[in-house]
Amino acid sequence: MLNLLRAERLKLQGGRKFWLVVGLVIILPIFQLLNSLSKNHYQGGLTLQVDQVVNGASAVLMSLKSNLLILLLFCAFISFYIGEEFETGTIRNPLSLGTSRLKFYLTKLAVALGLTALTVIVVTGMSMVGYGLVFGFGKMAGVTSYGVYFWLVLVTLFSLLAAGVAVYVAISFMTQKIGSALIWSFVYTIGMGLVPGVFQKINGLESVTWWFTESYLFYVNFTRPQVLDLVPKMLLVSWLTILIASLIGYQWFKRSDIK
Asked: Where is the chain membrane-spanning (predicted)?
């Protein structure tokens, strides 16, 4: 599998899509900072509850603030990244050399999750530097141990985003076409942002809302220190989603015909 990962690294580095993603990831925190500067100029200040990121300390929440953009970016990237393997027929090359479908699937999943981790690190790091220089590092109200808060939030946000990315990988292996993967991944992203809220209006089913990872990304206020109490549940839901999506995606891929 290490050989597959090395091959994927070389393939990504030589492709335009990877560098386009890298460029957009770098631009994202810069854009958010410029947007905040504009808001600060006209409104006289930033409000943590509304803006989520107001200084260097709160910049750990930039992945949350930009979560929909990050998810849509990976929605498109993964659809092309995996879909092209099927449409061009290059998937037959490693399989014909004896690579198991499980290793092939896990390689693609590992690359996708690795890029997600890199995105979270870059976006967080650049945001902390940028917002720290412009607005000062400051602090998070009510947080006594910022180091613990930082790492718990960083790992949690990565896990929530990684769950969505794992679903995109599964969808791409199930549809085996770029266009279909794009459509269904987009439908999933928007649907999981809206459907869970419906359960809040049904007596006895309110708790179902919190078994969807995007519910935490869209509806939970991470600016409150009490959010740390939800970390175990968020991590459980995230990694269960990754596991279930991967099992479904792999089983579908395992039984499909490669044309």
From this structure: 18-37, 57-83, 104-128, 148-171, 178-199, 234-253
* CA distance linking residue 131 with residue 112, whole number of Å: 28
C-alpha span between 166 and 172 (Å, rounded) = 10
What sign results for the dihedral spanned by CA atoms 223, 224, 227, 229?
positive
**Which two tokens mark 14?**
């030589």
Sign, CA dihedral 75-77-80-85, equals: negative
C-alpha distance from residue 37 to each of 42, 50, 90, 133, 213 (Å): 9, 15, 46, 12, 31
Q: What is the pLDDT of residues 59-112, one digit of tens each?
A: 999 999 999 999 999 999 999 999 998 988 888 888 888 888 999 999 999 999
Tell me: pLDDT of 259 over 70.
no
pLDDT above 70 covers a percentage of the chain that reads 94
List, for residues 160-192, the tens digit of each pLDDT value: 999 999 999 999 999 999 999 999 999 999 888
Q: Residue 44: pLDDT above 70? A: no
Q: Where are the domains of the chain?
A: 2-255
In angstroms, rounded to a whole number, what is the distance separating the alpha carbons of residues 113 and 116? 5
Q: Is the Cβ–Cβ distance between 60 and 69 less than 8 Å? A: no
d(CA 59, CA 125): 8
Whether the Cβ atoms of residue 208 and residue 196 lie closer than 8 Å to each other: yes
Distance between CA atoms of residues 57 and 194, nearest Å: 30
